Amino acid sequence: MNYKEAIEFIHSTYKFGSKLGLSNITKLTELLGNPQDSYKIIHIAGTNGKGSTSNMIHDVLMAAGYKTGLFISPYLEEFTERIQINKIQIDKEALARTTSLVKEKIKIMIEEGYNHPTEFEVVTAIGFKYFQEQNIDFLVLEVGLGGRFDATNVVANTFISVITSISYDHMEYLGDTLEKIAFEKAGIIKANSNVVIYPQDDNVVNTIIDIAKTRNSNYYLTDKNNIEKINGNLTGQWFKYLKNDVFDLPEVKINFLGEHQLYNALTALRTLEIVKLSGYNITEKSILTGFESVKFAGRFEILHENPVIVIDGGHNIDGIEAFSKAVKEYFKDNKVILFFGMLKDKNPDDVLNYLVPLCKEIYTLTPNNPRAMKASDLAELIRNNYDINVTSLDNYKDILRIVKGADESEYIAFVGSLYMIGEVRILLKKEYLFN
């Protein structure tokens, strides 16, 4: 099996849908020798902020000298982004080899009467096995959907669980209240372990604490008062970490923009305190180095200045609200030229109240996903409810004409589904609009 065949096999399993439950992934990992038991796992669940928090923790562990795996989803430009070690993506030969091994084990499963694993279960198994072969120290493991029945929750022992911001998303699977959603996310908490909780509403935090207590796990809260923003510009934010009983940090810089990213950093620091107190060599220097080096494409990412071009994968109500706050902070009173595309099941009409007031005009796009809302339908929705100029684009290449024709003083934003953001990022890179 070569790389192309591996990718075709992985994506062909999309037809098996998305099934919540652990029986299939448990059998598959058993056949692989339970590779997920070979390293310490920091498991991260939540509605928003998983990727940013995961990358911050990963880069600090790497800066501290630990061989650290990172498992994320989805990818923006190339599949190999999903499985990384020390910022190096899995090479194509290794992906092909590991996929071939997983495919052999799936054949055995089918013969024994099990259902065929879903695409995410297959990718999870590939990642676990590759990380074992590479003899990593830590794995920063991002949940795919929910937590309790997510394929990544096949891990029996977790060093630290992290629950990031909880909001309304995937309600058909996770429930129609924040407490129900928090319950599903908190399903990753293991007995006699540790859990760190992002600063959020008491009803959410208390739901997570209750589950931690039933599992005799230590829970660690985060306090927004422990972080003080110093300043920020389009290159990043500087802050002071006021909790100094474990780390005594000078001014810290992160490359992420938006108030929510300060709280993601706060959550990452609380997690790293536990790592430090558990006997690992996490120093102030490794934190400063890791935080300043970490980047996460597609999260209020500034691609270009003059004109300013930003892309953001805000794809639910909280993500869009965070984007809106960041635009108001960094772009001041400047209205944006917005390119917008979302999936139908993300309720695009719910987020327009946040977006439209920021815009001088809007272009709609169709994300490359079967669940996408067509650009023409999205444009019609906007026209019927708002007094703003909106144009639907059938071809992504039309973006280039519009962007290249913009005045240098303009602010241009691409917002919505990551399936759209990834394609846009590739397109703009290809045209040398940014490095």
Automatic annotation (TrEMBL):
EC number: 6.3.2.17
Record field: catalytic activity: (6S)-5,6,7,8-tetrahydrofolyl-(gamma-L-Glu)(n) + L-glutamate + ATP = (6S)-5,6,7,8-tetrahydrofolyl-(gamma-L-Glu)(n+1) + ADP + phosphate + H(+)
GO molecular function: ATP binding; dihydrofolate synthase activity; metal ion binding; tetrahydrofolylpolyglutamate synthase activity
PROSITE patterns for the chain: FOLYLPOLYGLU_SYNT_2
Every Mur ligase central domain range: 44-269
Family the UniProt entry places it in: Belongs to the folylpolyglutamate synthase family.
Protein name: tetrahydrofolate synthase
The species this protein was found in: Sedimentibacter hydroxybenzoicus DSM 7310
